[in-house]
Each structure stands twice: as C-alpha cells, then as structure tokens.
Amino acid sequence: MNAMLETPELPAVFDGVKLAAVAAVLYVIVRCLNLKSPTAPPDLYFQDSGLSRFLLKSCPLLTKEYIPPLIWGKSGHIQTALYGKMGRVRSPHPYGHRKFITMSDGATSTFDLFEPLAEHCVGDDITMVICPGIANHSEKQYIRTFVDYAQKNGYRCAVLNHLGALPNIELTSPRMFTYGCTWEFGAMVNYIKKTYPLTQLVVVGFSLGGNIVCKYLGETQANQEKVLCCVSVCQGYSALRAQETFMQWDQCRRFYNFLMADNMKKIILSHRQALFGDHVKKPQSLEDTDLSRLYTATSLMQIDDNVMRKFHGYNSLKEYYEEESCMRYLHRIYVPLMLVNAADDPLVHESLLTIPKSLSEKRENVMFVLPLHGGHLGFFEGSVLFPEPLTWMDKLVVEYASAICQWERNKSQCSDTEQVEADLE
C-alpha cells in the first residue's frame, strides 16, 4: 500500500504533457506572429539614374530598417486586421470642406479639400490628390492620419469619396464606384487644376485607389500635366491575375475575399433603390441584374460579375478586369512613380509583385519598394506592443513627395542658370 502511494510516475507524465502543451503553444505563437522574421530595410527595385541616386540620399526611409511593433508587427494578418478594424490609433480630425461635382450621367461626386497648415519645404503650391481604398472615403482613420501629416508638411490635400461609399450621401444616378473607373478622380483633379492654376500635383492612391490613379495617369498624356509624381500603395495591379489567388485559402485570402464581399453587398444594398428601383432609368446592362444572386454572393468576383461590370456595360468579367486594371497603362506613365507593397500582404499574392518588379527594370522613372512587413495598409511602427499614431507608410509617401519637389526645384534652378550663362555668351 505504501509503495503504491510513493509511485511518482503519473505526476511526471502529467508534467511532461504540460511541458509539451506549453511548447506547442509557444511554437504556434512564434509561427503565427512570425517572431523569428528579421527587421530589414525594404527591398528596392530601380534603375541607376540621377533621380534614383537623389532619392536614395533624400529619403532615409528607403534605406533604413522598417521596425514594426515587436510582439505582433511582423504578422501581416494582424497588421491588416488592425488597419481594417481600427484604422489608426489616436487619429486626428483634420478640418476640410466638402465639394460636390455633378457628372455627365447625373451622378454626384464628392471630395474633401484640406488646406496646408505650414509652408512647403520648397515654398511652392503643391496639392496631393488622394484616392482611398475600396469603399473608403475621407472620413476613414488612415486617410485622416495621412492628410493631417501631409498638411503639416505644407501640402493641400484633396481626397476623393468613392461614389456610394459615404453613408450620408445618396446616389443620384444608377452607378457607383468600380475597380478602375477614373471619372470621379479625373473630375476632382480637373477641379483642382482650374481652382488653383499655379498648383502642382502629387498623385497618391491606396489599394484599389492605387489602381485608379495609375490607370488615370496612363489613359492619356494630358492627365500627367502638372503632375510631379505618383505614389501607389498596396495595390494588386491586375484583377484578372488576382482573381484566381483570391479564391485560394493560402494566407486566408478566401476569408478576406468573403469579408470584403460582405461589406460590398451591404453598400450596394443600401443604395438598391437608386441602383435597381423600378422608377430608376437604368442602363440596359443593369436590367437583367438578379438581386438574389447578389444576396448569396460570397466573393468579390461574384459581385463584380453580377453587378459591378454592368455599370459600364462590360460583356464579361474577363473583359471588365482586363479593361479596368492599371497593368496595361503603367508603361504610359512618364512622371516619377513609386510603387509600394508589403511582402507579407495577405491580400496581394507574391506572383502579382512580378508586375512592378518587371516595370522597374524597364523604366527609369519607376521605383518599387518592398518591405518585409506591413500587411495590407498597416505599416504600423512601435517598440513592443503599442503602435505609434503615424505609420511608416505615411512618412514614406510624404518624404518621397518632398524629395521629388526638391528634385524638380533643383532641375529648374539648373535650367535657369544655364539659360543665364547662354544669354551672357
């Protein structure tokens, strides 16, 4: 009896199980949070030129380590989730004026205009024309944070509100924003050029907005007049190539696809009377829209095929994605162009990144910036746990834009000096 009470084997087994369980949990945490991933400067793809050398000297963020918060910042999923749910921390509330433009088809486009809060570093009048991500607008926290920082660095900011995205602005025609429609963005840019004839433009697009601004610039050479540079952050470049990856469970893309589709359904259905009501004079392409298929849609592709492509009369989803993607327009952009993606962005498959890499190898005006971390529009910075209000992305875009402004100022001064010397001779 005493011998049985003194047997230690059973507790030892339990201790071993506990240790194994703890080790397994720690292993999962390390893997999920990607804690073993190093911090490093972003990978840069560009051609050696006077412009690229100037940018490397003038933009320290291009060559410095991007250091995300230690505990969770190396997980692209957490960075993306925090951007999606929280936007930014301690986001400011910049004061702006809302402008309304009536489009030729009766649609009412809106954008918000924010004046600079300081003098620009080169002393010029510079306006950032900004296109937000899918279903986003000027009231989103990441946009407010970026605008406030840009204002404090001397930039006027004009932010497009995607057609149908603002809950308090009703649609006035049977149409809302689509993946690559540039009409509203173009109308905003034309308003800025007309209202501020001496201003120069910095074009900025986030996610879907990156596709729109690049497509806009490439559509016609006239769209690049008065444009100093363009910055695109976290776009996917080709919807046709992205649609296959969005149906894969790798990196949980199928789950993200479902969440974005659910949000799009809510926005479309909130405008169903303006889009599909019996009293609305709809384009012929919208007449056969089956709303029951919209209710049951679980992916963006199903929504695009059943609704979005029909706003512009495309005959198929393939045609819609081919025509609306900026990939076929990128080679027509001649102003300095910075394309930014994160290697751990769960929404943008690595195969899509061959597009900006290939472009940067062929065009001197293009620089592709690829940090290891950042997720989709996250790019939070911080020491251990809590992120800073301002992100690496915010600082990089403004730093790049200011460097381009200085580059253009230097070129102008050199041209003036050469002209004076020529006159003296």
TrEMBL record:
Q: Which domain of life is it from?
A: Eukaryota
High-level lineage = Eukaryota, Metazoa, Chordata, Craniata, Vertebrata
Q: Name one GO molecular function term.
A: monoacylglycerol lipase activity
Taxonomic source organism: Gorilla gorilla gorilla
Q: What UniProt keywords apply to this chain's record, in alphabetical order?
A: Cell membrane, Glycoprotein, Hydrolase, Lipid degradation, Lipid metabolism, Membrane, Serine esterase, Signal-anchor, Transmembrane, Transmembrane helix
Q: Top EC class per UniProt?
A: hydrolase
Q: Where is the AB hydrolase-1 domain?
A: 127-382
Q: Where in the cell is it found?
A: Cell membrane
Transferase as a keyword of this entry, yes or no, is no
Official protein name in the record? Monoacylglycerol lipase ABHD2
Give the UniProt entry's GO cellular component terms.
sperm flagellum; sperm plasma membrane
